[in-house]
């Protein structure tokens, strides 16, 4: 995995690219003295590091710049893990394990700014924790040498000439991004573009963080990040008729859209432009041992994925041998769509799709997917997950929703006033903690009254206190439902826009 060197200078953050280490140019991230806005520029190494850096560290990727109360923060990946090492075209796909946000130093010539209020300090720390919580899900992925926001099929059909983030790009009849062209028919955008400039904006999760780099025409330093699930299975054997066997690499990628992304109870349906909430694109790629993409298929339903994988295997066998080493396997699939004639591929397909379903379910609903198994243990596990979902969705998902909106740039910290506490609860709202402490107080009060004035044993007092508390809980719950007061107990996201 490529590593950048981050230098912490007195008035700037300086980045050295892995392939340019020791060269004369580095990337300098600083603040403009007048406006204190982020300034990104290439500078001579000697000038950018004329003052010795206080420290240096290695980072794996650059996410962009986030602006909070204190000012701009440089977002970088500090820990990563290679998930795919030899993907399409030799691509390496990495999982973001940890990221950090470093404040950009103020220049010495800048005028002193007003200090942050205690409220702003508290909110700043909470905002940083929320950004880290998105990274900590370990569902962010990037690549140094492959456009992970695009499917292999779109890349192949467009000849790797992909439209950038401009209003001109559109969908053609087949649903693929169509690159604008000159009047003479030649494509405007070519394979020489940076990954960030040609990335699909639907799945470019750090798009909002890359604006300062794009404005300076230096977005080739930014690594487009997707949110989803990536898995690879190597040397999957394909049983064939005859002494020889075929083995494949099975690559699975799912991408969550950055438009209308959220949690189960907080974001549903479509917006005015037809964007569906929590849309996920799923892609499967089959690679022979030589590493060439044979037939990429983007599918969603399991039955369709089985049929597409089978078709890919059929095409691969015919192309490899020209003799059709896998004859008539598709015909057997027509008889039973839930039975694939290739056991190893079937196992890999089920395993990866199961893991993907669990990952997407945790992100959306808070627990792994409900398996709807028929056994007692399966039913108990599904019941436990359902109860867990109820509490997570009602009492904890609001913070997750706010973290997603903050990371994607759907909420701007600059819109808050100096004395505005965006997390202040509305009058009459109850927190889960406050309700819990009130119930504990009721239980202890009933128990102590029984112990002081009653004549029964402590165990009987405990039973009476427990029953009294349960009756009180049911009575309050019934009253709240009847009067429509239940929203007062449910946590509400603060960063959702009205148009979402």
Automatic annotation (TrEMBL):
The protein's name in its UniProt record = Phosphatidylinositide phosphatase SAC1
Q: Which Pfam families match?
A: Syja_N
Q: Which residues cross the membrane?
A: 435-454, 460-481
Listed A to Z, the keywords are: Membrane, Transmembrane, Transmembrane helix
**Organism annotation:** Hondaea fermentalgiana
Q: Could you tell me which residue ranges the SAC domain spans?
A: 131-302
The keyword Cell wall biogenesis/degradation is assigned to this record? no
Question: Which InterPro entries does this UniProt record tie to the protein?
Answer: SAC_dom
Give start-end of the signal peptide.
Answer: none
Q: Might you report a single GO cellular component term?
A: endoplasmic reticulum
Task: Kindly list the biological process annotations in GO that this record carries.
Answer: phosphatidylinositol dephosphorylation
The yes or no answer to whether the keyword Hydrolase is present is no
Q: Name one GO molecular function term.
A: phosphatidylinositol-4-phosphate phosphatase activity
């Amino acid at each position: 995995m490529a590593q950048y060197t981050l230098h912490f200078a007195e008035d700037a953050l300086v980045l050295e690219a892995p392939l340019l280490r020791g060269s004369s140019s580095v990337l300098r991230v600083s603040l403009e003295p007048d406006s204190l806005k982020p300034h990104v520029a290439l500078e001579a190494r000697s000038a950018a590091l004329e003052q010795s850096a206080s420290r240096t560290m290695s980072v794996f990727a650059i996410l962009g710049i986030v602006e909070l109360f204190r000012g701009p923060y440089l977002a970088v990946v500090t820990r990563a893990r290679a998930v795919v090492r030899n993907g399409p075209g030799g691509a390496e796909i990495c999982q973001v394990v940890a990221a950090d946000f470093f404040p950009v130093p103020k220049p010495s010539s800048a005028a002193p700014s007003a200090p942050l209020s205690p409220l702003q300090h508290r909110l700043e720390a909470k905002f940083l924790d929320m950004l880290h919580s998105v990274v900590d899900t370990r569902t962010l992925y990037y690549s140094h040498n492959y456009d992970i926001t695009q499917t292999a099929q779109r890349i192949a059909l467009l000849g790797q000439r992909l439209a950038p983030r401009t209003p001109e790009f559109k969908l053609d009849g087949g649903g693929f991004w169509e690159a604008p062209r000159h009047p003479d028919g030649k494509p405007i955008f070519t394979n020489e573009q940076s990954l960030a400039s040609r990335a699909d904006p639907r799945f470019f999760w750090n798009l909002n963080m890359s604006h300062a780099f794009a404005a300076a025409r230096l977005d080739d330093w930014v690594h487009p990040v997707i949110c989803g699930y990536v898995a690879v299975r190597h040397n999957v054997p394909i049983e064939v008729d005859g002494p020889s066997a075929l083995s494949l690499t099975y690559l699975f990628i799912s991408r969550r859209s950055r438009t209308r992304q959220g949690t189960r109870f907080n974001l549903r349906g479509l917006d005015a432009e037809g964007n569906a909430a929590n849309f996920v694109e799923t892609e499967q790629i089959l690679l022979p041992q030589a590493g060439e993409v044979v037939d990429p298929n983007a599918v969603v339903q399991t039955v369709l994925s089985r049929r597409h994988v089978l078709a890919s295997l059929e095409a691969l066998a015919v192309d490899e041998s020209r003799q059709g080493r896998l004859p008539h396997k598709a015909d057997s699939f027509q008889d039973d769509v839930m039975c694939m004639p290739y056991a190893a591929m079937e196992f890999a397909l089920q395993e990866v799709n199961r893991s993907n379903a669990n990952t997407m379910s945790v992100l959306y609903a808070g627990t792994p997917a409900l398996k709807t198994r028929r056994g007692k243990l399966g039913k108990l596990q599904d019941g436990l997950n359902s109860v867990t979902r109820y509490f997570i969705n009602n009492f904890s998902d609001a913070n997750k929703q706010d973290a997603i909106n903050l990371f994607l740039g759907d909420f701007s910290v600059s819109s808050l006033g100096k004395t505005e506490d965006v997390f202040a609860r509305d009058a009459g709202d109850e927190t889960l903690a406050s309700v819990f402490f009130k119930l504990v107080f009721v239980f202890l009060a009933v128990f102590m009254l029984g112990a002081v004035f009653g004549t029964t044993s402590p165990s009987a007092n405990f039973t009476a206190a427990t029953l009294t508390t349960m009756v009180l809980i049911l009575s309050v719950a019934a009253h709240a439902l009847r009067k429509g007061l239940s929203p007062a107990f449910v946590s509400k996201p603060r960063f959702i826009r009205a148009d979402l």
